[in-house]
Amino acid sequence: MADLDLILVTQSNVVDYEGFGDLPLDRLDLYKSLVYPRMVHHGGRFRSHLDYLNHKRFGKYFADASYPERRGMYNIWNLASMAGVHLANYLAQFGLRVRLINNLDSEWDWFEEAYRDCATPPLVGLSSTFYLSWKEVGGVAKRLRGLDPDMDIVLGGAFANAETIHQSPTTFEARMRKYGFRYVLHAFNSEPDLRDLLLARRAGRNPDTVKNLAWIDGTLKTGAFEATEKQWNTPLLSLADVPPTWDRLEMPFLNRTIQIRTAAGCPFSCAFCSYPTTAGPWKTVDAETVRAHLDSVMRIPGVDRVIFIDDTFNVPPHRFKELVKIFADYPFEWFSFLRVQYVNEEVMAMMKDSGCRGVYLGIESASDTILKNMNKRATGAQFAEGVRLLNKYDIDYLAAFVLGFPGETDATVQENVDFIRDNGVRYYSLKEFYYMPHTLVHEQRERYGLTGDGGKWSHDTMTHDRAAEIKLELFQSIDTSTHVDPDTSLWYMAYLYDQGLSFPEIRREQDEINGLMKAQLRSLGKPAGAAVAAE
Description:
Elements: E1 6-9, H1 17-21, H2 28-35, E2 40-42, E3 45-47, H3 49-58, H4 67-70, H5 82-92, E4 98-101, H6 104-116, E5 123-127, H7 134-147, E6 153-156, H8 158-162, H9 172-179, E7 183-185, H10 191-203, E8 213-217, E9 224-227, E10 257-260, E11 263-264, H11 275-279, E12 283-284, H12 287-297, E13 305-308, H13 317-327, E14 333-337, H14 345-353, E15 356-364, H15 368-374, H16 380-392, E16 396-403, H17 410-422, E17 427-432, H18 440-443, H19 445-448, E18 451-453, E19 456-459, E20 462-463, H20 464-477, E21 482-483, H21 489-498, H22 503-522
Parallel strand pairs: 1-4, 1-5, 5-6, 6-7, 10-13, 13-14, 14-15, 15-16, 16-17, 17-21
Antiparallel strand pairs: 2-3, 7-8, 8-9, 11-12, 18-19, 19-20
């Protein structure tokens, strides 16, 4: 068998549960909004909701299991990544040999075996899609280089791209040397650049013709730092720019669910979102091309569920109707994002008949005042009608809310609570506003008195501390709907469904976890140790 050109690590755990577990419980009141309701305290530590279910079902936690055991346990990163599968499919047409490691925390033994079996060490790729800091990606690189201190690692993806939106690629040098990255590909759409890097590496050529590349020539500590000019790449789509050969990929981590994308970019410009800035022009794939790829997906043994990760899947509405008609020809169930204000009764009935099992609703706020500030192009009444139709046709959904956007007050927050209660919302999530510089609201910051950065901000009507307090207040008070961690949201539900749980079972399990967290929050301020008495 020929050596691999690339071993691509697409995912691993991004939350430092060990670090949170070491925090002193007698100081919990100081950091409670960081852990609740994202984590539950169980077995003496803060853990993910899925790890609570691991202990309940398997009698052990994820970290205590062997790698083969972990692959059969609950972990959100065990759900097959779209980015990795798409990239392997794209590179295969150029004769490049790729091995996917879908979740490094479950598949480290597979990584070791694949790397050591190569006579010539392959390039190791690290996708940064879900990482938010150099510390996080650096920790993964350190683990990889522990196997081979001379390992060549390339970092690419959303985090790498975001680092150069407002600064030069030369800023990568210090971090690359510190954390052990040989290369960084910093374009948002870096697939062709990775292809060119791999082909240059295979031929033994200098990579100086590869676009959007920073690299260190020689030893990482003392070699020369080089960088090529940053250039825009036209977005590559998993369906429009690759042959329909999903069934030819080696994906031992795959269960019943695969993720694909039929569009890139976004036609909207929500004021809090950076995606329109980073992703570039909106681009869709025609319906018949989607059909050809679904034919390939359906040839994969055991796969009968699809998650479409397009940010605006049902826009434009006429294209969405074409797609839904096609889905009805297949025996799979499907999940997606949904701009529910653009769906009527006819379309909802088509969705149900074609196998739609669940959707993500980026409602963000039920207040028309905040929706206008967010530039959401929707009203609370339109959202209410969409939720009514979802309930009528028994399609499960998660309604996501953002707390603390400029203009937010206690009164606008109450509109969210009323919306959830009055409309019978099934699942919801709460997340504080996150302030990013490459967004529309940043351009309007003087209008709102908005200052700060990231998760620490203030404006004329609220502060980040107050938004965090409100999040916990609402979580503890809302009892008509089931809260799901916003970091995993619909994917948490789709993943448990992939693992064999029905939606009623998912709701019962999550209600149990939420009840435990609420009991732990109620015990704050009581004698030390009482905060976890509900375990």
